[in-house]
Amino acid sequence: MSDAMQNLYFRVRDNGAAVFRIDIENRQRRLDLDQIAVVNTNNGQIKSQGDNPPDKEEMAQIEAWLAARQKALEDRTLDDIFRAIDHLNLTAHWAQSKASDEELEKFTDPLLMAMHDLRMVLVRKKSDRLARD
Q1: How far apart are CA 95 and CA 112, in angstroms?
Q2: Considering the entire predicted model, what is its pTM?
């Protein structure tokens, strides 16, 4: 953790994070976490929480974390799509070379429906892009 970020802790949630100020300047000399904000990675919203809202420096740190988090989530999504392509290729190889009739019977219909749904979405989106251009 860098020195600049040591005074804030980000508890990641499904759609963002709760932001805490780390307090070590207390009588018990223990770490206290004081929630100061909630961040929404979907819409970029930062909402102050509690009695001590983030100061300008903390807000800059929160905004930097938000930008980095949104980029990481975007990268993960793209990586997941490339992994799905790999899995489809591996599934095709397995179905062709190793799968038994019983194994094929278990997943053929759901897989065909999922692939049909994906194909319809991709064809529609491509058609929309071509129509715009």
Answers
A1: 13
A2: 0.75
